[in-house]
Amino acid sequence: MTTQTGATAVARPGLGEPILTVNGMVKYFPITRGILFRSKIGDVKAVDGVDFVLHKGETLGVVGESGCGKSTLAKLLMRLETATAGTAIYDGRDIVAAKGGELRRLRRQVQMVMQDPYTSLNPRMTVGDIIAEPLVIHGVGGNDKARESRVRELLDVVGLNPEHINRYPHQFSGGQRQRVGIARALALNPEIIICDEPVSALDVSIQAQVINLLEKLQAELGLSYIFIAHDLSVVRHICDRVAVMYLGRIVELGTEDEIYSRATHPYTQALLSAVPVPDPDAREHRQIIRLSGDVPSPANPPSGCRFRTRCWKATDLCAQETPALIEREADPHLSACHYAERAEHIIG
Ligand SMILES: Nc1ncnc2c1ncn2[C@@H]1O[C@H](COP(=O)(O)OP(=O)(O)OP(=O)(O)O)[C@@H](O)[C@H]1O
Ligand SMILES: [Mg+2]
């Protein structure tokens, strides 16, 4: 299908082999009315035409406000939800269309770390059983003894004491629980890990430790990450590239440096203006952009550019024509804005 953004996912030279190619990804959740005779009265357009390439060993940040479709995108790639349209090609196979044994194999290779370590771990299972569960489900890892030694090894890899294998989640702190979640995600030796706001529920002092662990594991195991976050400050140091999402679509995509110093989409510029700046000189010169109004409902998104209702640059053109996610200006990154231009002094 032609993609809604008008762009096709293209691999970027110099970033390694493409490992996952997502094209035209769409997820609509039907809105129904009535109890006996359910009739469809609309759709929540949670993801509405997303294209990107994830490269081997890369960390791609996915950033945007609450409800813009980040977790839905993650679930589509994990096949926890089935896409309405689109393809996600991993290792020559389409995750969206995979069935049976092929889907099971794909599920081993793509794992997820959830947002909330307090609710994502079963409180009635020991951490040993939690980490071993994927091995049991997929029938790998040998006998009980071999699995236990793999679990001890995984506990050690994520910086937990292997002697705590029989403890329960409530006996660990938030940061330690997220390490358990990471160990579980690693159990099947995946190639891709989707981290859905892995540090948002943790104290700021603990966040850096978990991010450092993820970086260490990536260097040692050659993992590729999709790292989802609410705001741009969290992803800055871990991401090679950043995709900014608004109402189900990517509005800007570029390397960390391009996004932080040469963002051209007004929405990205507004998000950047909210990132704390430690340097007082830079703080004095920076431009603060306050967005008016709320994010419109994904059941009834604005025509044309979805950001136009909150954008200070919007004209009639923005209501009539959806801007494609293409290269704008001289910078080699993608921006979906008719009036894309670099703004000075947003982040100092
Ligand atoms: N199972 C579902 N049924 C109906 N609507 C859904 C479902 N899951 C998500 N949505 C809707 O899809 C939209 C995108 O939700 P999603 O959870 O993907 O956003 P998000 O970017 O992860 O937000 P947050 O930052 O709050 O985690 C929201 O409007 C949400 O209400
Ligand atoms: Mg989410």
TrEMBL record:
<comment type="similarity">
    <text>Belongs to the ABC transporter superfamily.</text>
</comment>
<dbReference type="InterPro" id="IPR050319">
    <property type="entry name" value="ABC_transp_ATP-bind"/>
</dbReference>
<dbReference type="GO" id="GO:0005524">
    <property type="term" value="F:ATP binding"/>
</dbReference>
<dbReference type="GO" id="GO:0015833">
    <property type="term" value="P:peptide transport"/>
</dbReference>
<dbReference type="InterPro" id="IPR013563">
    <property type="entry name" value="Oligopep_ABC_C"/>
</dbReference>
<protein>
    <submittedName>
        <fullName>Peptide/nickel transport system ATP-binding protein</fullName>
    </submittedName>
</protein>
<keyword id="KW-0547">Nucleotide-binding</keyword>
<dbReference type="Pfam" id="PF00005">
    <property type="entry name" value="ABC_tran"/>
</dbReference>
<dbReference type="InterPro" id="IPR017871">
    <property type="entry name" value="ABC_transporter-like_CS"/>
</dbReference>
<dbReference type="Pfam" id="PF08352">
    <property type="entry name" value="oligo_HPY"/>
</dbReference>
<keyword id="KW-0813">Transport</keyword>
<dbReference type="GO" id="GO:0016887">
    <property type="term" value="F:ATP hydrolysis activity"/>
</dbReference>
<keyword id="KW-0067">ATP-binding</keyword>
<dbReference type="GO" id="GO:0055085">
    <property type="term" value="P:transmembrane transport"/>
</dbReference>
<dbReference type="InterPro" id="IPR003439">
    <property type="entry name" value="ABC_transporter-like_ATP-bd"/>
</dbReference>
<feature type="domain" description="ABC transporter">
    <location>
        <begin position="26"/>
        <end position="272"/>
    </location>
</feature>
<dbReference type="InterPro" id="IPR003593">
    <property type="entry name" value="AAA+_ATPase"/>
</dbReference>
<dbReference type="InterPro" id="IPR027417">
    <property type="entry name" value="P-loop_NTPase"/>
</dbReference>
